[in-house]
Design goal:
Elements (H helix, E strand, L loop, with lengths): L12 E2 L12 H9 L2 E5 L5 E5 L2 H9 L3 E2 L34 H8 L2 H6 L1 H18 L3 E2 H6 L1 H11 L6 H10 L7 H19 L13 H13 L5 H30 L3 H5 L6 H14 L8 E3 L3 E3 L2 E3 L4 E4 L1 H5 L33 H18 L4 E2 L21 E3 L1
Parallel strand pairs: 1-2, 3-9
Antiparallel strand pairs: 2-3, 4-6, 5-11, 6-9, 7-8, 10-11
Helix pairs in contact: 3-10, 5-7, 5-15, 7-8, 7-10, 7-11, 8-9, 8-11, 9-10, 9-11, 11-13, 11-15
């Protein structure tokens, strides 16, 4: 990003701000939101931005076509976290005739609620296997190492069709791309993953060119290219796979890593996951709202003047939307720090909104439900093995995730 003009909405403060507590937002975020829905901030690379903090302002900004991501989301590794797949506008040369008619349609169909349900049995089996291993290892155990990190690696690998022996490696590289300011490590990881996915897309079926497709999204995309001669560039398909790998692995890991300690603050809330029903479904939404797997949306560029939160964002301004702050806005959510399943509110902004709504939302909800249901049933007496304030976050990421969550039972 190259924005150099200060938004002029008060003194710019360095963003992201340090957290006093791993499970709670930075105090600066709450303080600024109380002063108004939009504030000035300064990113690590020196970019001045308008930071959108209020729920209603954030929803408006996410849906406003005058705030464009396109020119700011082409190459930055960290922006792969969005996981958003845009279906291009159709024209006379290439009409979309239904789901799956293009590679974009195929991806959307595999990430739909129905697609997520097809992965539920495999997800449930993997949760059981991981919890068996954790139980055998005995307490204290690190919930990140035993569940929150390996589960999304397997599920995302199954979705994409990544060979089992490569899944941990792919997740490790994908996780290192989810950073706020690109580094040599993150750029190297992107390059490695691009090369890897490009090779998988080019591989013929194991039984020869006329044989059945390989399993997963990669196999189906490769098959569509061979059969239909699609004009979608390979690099575009690789970018989609990168975004899905990064978002699919990281978002669930963050929500589990932060969500379980939040659930354990109230034993009755944790126990609600043992049985299906409205309370469990409501808690999944509350955890997503409260943990905000991606604290900010992708940066936007104002392509014309935009009035938002009582301010004018001039054409050429860079705009950053704090999903974390919006999800904790008391104007929308009374007692926002509390997990209240009775809210039944799916309109939190953890997955974005409008045309940029995360296509992997159904998959994330399914994974969280299976993981937390399995955990609460297997370990009803689960509790943290360290004080909450001893939980530490990985620094430098777009979505700071706990390094370890030690538990006992």
């Amino acid at each position: 990003m190259t924005g150099e003009t200060s938004p002029g909405a008060g003194p710019a403060r360095g963003f992201p701000w340090p957290r006093a507590h791993a499970l709670d937002p930075p105090e600066e975020l709450t303080h600024l939101r109380q002063q108004g829905g939009v504030a000035a901030a300064l990113l690590p690379d020196g970019t001045h931005v308008h930071l959108v903090l209020g729920y209603h302002e954030a929803r408006q900004a996410l849906s406003d076509p005058r705030l464009s991501r396109e020119s700011l989301s082409r190459s930055e590794p960290g922006e792969l976290v969005a996981g958003t797949v845009r279906r291009p506008a159709t024209n006379g040369e290439e009409a979309v005739t239904g789901a799956g008619a293009t590679p974009y349609g195929l991806v959307l169909s595999m990430l739909s609620p129905r697609g997520a349900e097809r992965l539920r049995p495999a997800t449930r089996r993997e949760v059981g296997r991981l919890l068996d291993a954790m139980d055998e290892a005995g307490p204290p155990a690190d919930l990140i190492a035993h569940l929150a990190r390996p589960l999304p690696a397997v599920v995302t690998g199954e979705l994409l069709g990544v060979p089992a022996q490569d899944r941990t490696w792919v997740q490790r590289l994908a996780s290192s791309t989810v950073v706020f300011a690109p580094t040599a490590e993150s750029r190297g990881a992107v390059a490695e993953l691009r090369s890897y996915f490009r090779e998988l897309l080019a591989e013929p079926p194991s039984t020869g060119p006329a044989g059945p497709e390989k399993p997963g999204m990669i196999g189906r995309l490769a098959g569509a290219r061979r059969r239909d001669g699609t004009r979608v560039p390979v690099d575009d398909l690789v970018t989609m796979l990168l975004r899905i790998a990064a978002a699919g692995g990281h978002s669930v890991q963050v929500s589990l890593g932060k969500g379980v300690p939040l659930l354990l603050r109230d034993r009755s809330v944790y126990a609600a996951f043992t049985e299906p029903g409205p309370a469990r479904d409501g808690l999944v939404e509350e955890l997503l709202r409260r943990t905000a797997p991606a604290p900010t949306a992708l940066p936007r560029l104002a392509v014309e003047d935009v009035h938002l939160g009582g301010r004018t964002l001039p054409r050429g301004s860079v705009v950053l939307i704090s999903l974390e702050s919006a999800n904790l806005d008391p104007a929308r959510y009374p007692d926002p720090d509390q997990l209240r399943p009775e809210r039944g509110d799916k309109r939190h902004l953890s997955f974005g909104a409008g045309s940029n709504y995360c296509v992997g939302a159904a998959l994330a909800r399914m994974e969280l439900t299976e993981a937390l249901t399995g955990l609460s049933r297997r370990f009803p007496t689960l509790h943290l093995a360290v004080p909450e304030d001893a939980v530490r976050l990985r620094e430098g990421g777009i979505a700071p995730d706990p390094l370890e969550v030690p538990v006992r039972w």
